[in-house]
Amino acid sequence: MTKAKRIDREAGRAYWMMSLPAFLVYLLVMAFPIALSVVLSVSNYSGGKMFGGEAWGFAGFGQYARIVQDPWFWNALKNNFYIVLISVFGQLPLGFIFAYIIYRRIVKWPGFWQGILYLPNIISIIVVGLLWQSIFSPNGPIAELVNLSARHQFEIKLVAVLGSQGHLNLGDDALSRIIALGGPQAANMFTNPVPELRDLIAGYQPNQYSQLLNDLTNLFVTRWTPDFLNQKNVAMLPVLFVILWMYTGMYLILFLANMQKIDTQIIESARIDGANEAQVMRHIILPALSGTIVNSAILAISGSLSSFALIFALTGGGPSRITEILSIYMYNNAFLGRPNFPLANAIALITVVISMLLILVTKAFESRYGGKEE
Amino acid sequence: MKKVIIALLMVAGTFGAMAQVTLNVLNYQQADQAGYQEDVQIWQDFQTQNPDIKLNMEVLFNDPYHQKLQAYAAAGTLPDVFYLWPGARSAVIHEKHLAKDLGKLLGADYLKDFTGAATNPNNQLGKYLAELPQSFTYTAVMYVNVKLLKDNGFAVPKTYADLKKMVPKLKSKGIAVMMLPDKDGWPGQSCLFSTVAGRMAGDAFFDNVLAGKAKFTDKPFVDSLKVVEDLFKDGIIQRTDTAVGYGDGPGIFAQGKAAIYLDGDWRTGAYITDKASGKALIAPADQSNYALMNIVALPGEKFPGVASAVAGTGWAISNSLPAGSDKEKAAVKLIKYLYSPEVQAIRYGTGAYVPTRKGVKATLEPLPAMLPPFYAANPKTCYVLDGVLDPSVYNVINNGIINIGNGTQTAAQVAADVQAAFVTWQATKK
After folding, report:
1. Which chain A residue shows the shortest CA-CA distance from B386?
2. pLDDT for the residue B17
3. What fold does the segment set A71-137+232-369 form as a domain?
4. Quick one: angle between helices A341-369 and A71-86, nearest 10?
5. Which of A249, A271, A227 shows the shortest CA–CA distance to A98?
6. Which of B67, B68, B96, B172 to mutate to test the interface with A (most CBs of A within 10 A)?
7. Residue B380 — very low, low, confident or very high, per pLDDT cuts 50/70/90?
8. Which residues of A are less than 8 Å from B181 in CB distance?
9. What is the domain range of residue B112?
10. Domain map of chain A by residue range?
11. Which candidate, A20, A72, B231, B374, has a CA 20 to 30 Å from the CA of A5?
C-alpha cells in the first residue's frame, strides 16, 4: 500500500469517526421522527403503547383523502396562505424599506427606530398574543373608546326626546321614539314595550333625571363590539396585523446587517454620478441583497406555515375555528378530544410539502430574476 | 472478619433499598386556585407516613396534562398512578384498557363506602371502573346573586319569563341577567346546552340518534338550540360573552356585573377563601347572599327539572403494573389514602367537590355548603353531551353555540352541521 493510499484511508476513517456520532444523532433526532410521521400517517394506530402494545399496521391513504374533503382543512390552509402573503409581501418589503431608511440615515436617531421596530421580537409570543387579544376584545380599549363616543351621541338623541327640563310623564309617542332609538333588538327585551318602559321610567323621581338618562342609555344604546371580527372573511385581519407588527423588525435587522456589508464607496460614486435614493436602492442595494431576500422569504414561508403559539394565544383558532391555521388544525386533531394521530401526522406532512413547494417557487423566482450577491 | 461485616452491611443495604418502591405519579393541580396548599400538604403527608414508598411526581394542569397523558400512553410509559376523566377526554385510556379495573382491584367491600353513581362502571367510557370518581358532577348550575336581584326588585327566577322580565331593569343598571363565559366553547355546551337538551329532547332522543333512529335535525334538538338562540336574542345572555374566557367569569360575577352565573358545581371552589392568601372572591359573610339553582323552567320543555350530570374525575392505576407486585400494592395504598375520609374531608372543605365517599364531613363556607341540598333538590339528571357524543360531533355543537351567540348561525344551521359531523363520524367509525 502506498503512503498516499494509507493517508487516504486514515483520512476516511477519521472522517467517519468524527462525523458518525453527529450522523447518528441526526438519524435519531431528525430522520426517525420524520420517518415515523410518514408511517403513522398511513397507519391505523389509534393510541396506546406504540411499540409492543396493540398491533397496528398499514391502513392506506384514507387520512389524506379525509383531509382534502374536510372544509376546515381548506379554511386552515387559506388562513396560512394569508399569513404567508402578509409575511412575504408585508413584512419583507416593510422590513427592507425601514432598513434602507435607517441605513441611509434618512430619519434622525436611526438607533432608536431600529430598537423600537425590533422591540416586539423580544417580548414573549404568549404575552404579545394576550396583549392584542385584550386590545381587540369586546371589552378592550378600542371598544371602550368607541362606546364612550356612542353613549354621548345616544344621550344627545335621548335628551331631544325627553326634553332637558326633565319631566317624566312621557306619552306613548315619546316612549315609542325612545324604543326606536335602541334599534330592532330593543323591542326584544320587552313583552309589551311601551307599557313596560313607562313602568320602568315611573320608578324614577324628577330629581333623578341624570340617573334616568344614564340608565336609559345603558338600556338602549347599541354597544359597539368588534363583532365584525367574528365574520369568516375578516376574522384574520387582526391576526395578520399582529403578525406584521411583530416580525417586521426581525427582517429589518437581517436586511440592515447585510446592507452594512455593502461597500459604501459604490453608493457614494453612484450618488456622485447623479443617482437618486430610489435608483441606489433599485440598482445597488436590491441586487446586492437578493440572496438575503430569498433567504428571508424562505424563513418567512416556513415560519408562516409552522406558526402556532402567537395565533393560539391570540385567538386559539376561534371564534368557532375561523382563524384556525394548519398547526392548530393538527394540534386539535392530535390532542383534543379523541386523538387521531394518523390524521395529525398526515396534516403535518402536507404542511411540510406545501412549505417545500413554496420555497422551491421562491428559489426558482430568485434564480430567474435575482441579482448576484457579493 | 472485617470483609464479612462489610459484605453483610452491603447486602442489608441492598435489601433496604429494594424495600422502597418508587411510584411515578402524574398529578393534576392548579397552583393559583384555593385549596392548592392543602393539596400539596396531602401529598407531603403521604410521603411522611410512607417512607417505603417514594413518589416521583409530575404536576400539570389543563390541556398540557391531557397532552402529556396522551404522549405517555403513546410511548407506553404511562405513570403508575394518574388522574383520569370518565369520558371522551381520556378516551384512549378507557378504550385500550390502559388503566386497571379498580372495581376488581379495590374490591366490593372497599367500594361499598362510595355512592352507587361513582362505582357504576356504565358511567365510564370503557364500561369498567378505570378511575374512581371523587365526585358526581352537575355541570349546569345557576349561581344566583340573590341580594343583587332583591336590590333591583326581583325575586329568584323560576321560569324563562322571569329571566326575560329582568332584562330592561338590570340592563339599564349595566348588569347582565345571566353570564356564560363561552370563549372556550365547552361551557356553552356543558354548563347550559346539555341541560337545555335534556329538558327539551331528553336522553332517549340522544340514544335514538346514536342508534340511527333519530337525527340532530329533528325538532327536539333544533328546539333546544332555539332556546339558546332566544337567550341571546332576548338579551338574557349578552352576545359579548362568547368572547369572555372561562377563567375570567367568576371575577366578573363576583364584581356584581351579572345577576346569575352559569357554571358547573365545581366552580364553588373559585369563590371561597384561599387559605394561603386569606382572600376570597366572595367573602364567607357575603356568600349567604347567593344561591345555587337548577336552570329555570324553559318554555316547551318535555322533561322538567332535569340537570346535566356526569361521573367526576378520579385517580387511576396503570395497567402495566404487574398484578400482585410491590408497585401495585403501593399504588393501591396511595389510592386508598387519597380516597380516605380524612383526605376527602380536606378536599371537601376546600370546595373542590362533594365527595362520593359516604359520610365525609367538613367545615364548609356557605357557598359549597349549598351543594348537598342542591343535589338533593335536583335528583333527576340527564346526559352531559360531551360525555356521550364523539368529540368530532360535540365540538361542532360547541362551535355552533358560539356562532348562535354571535348571531352568525341559526339553530337550524347548527343542527344541520351537527348532523353532518355525526354522519361523517359514523362513516369513519365503519
Report:
1. A337
2. 47
3. MetI-like fold (1.10.3720)
4. 30
5. A249
6. B172
7. very high
8. none
9. 16-135+312-339
10. 1-40, 71-137+232-369, 141-220
11. A20
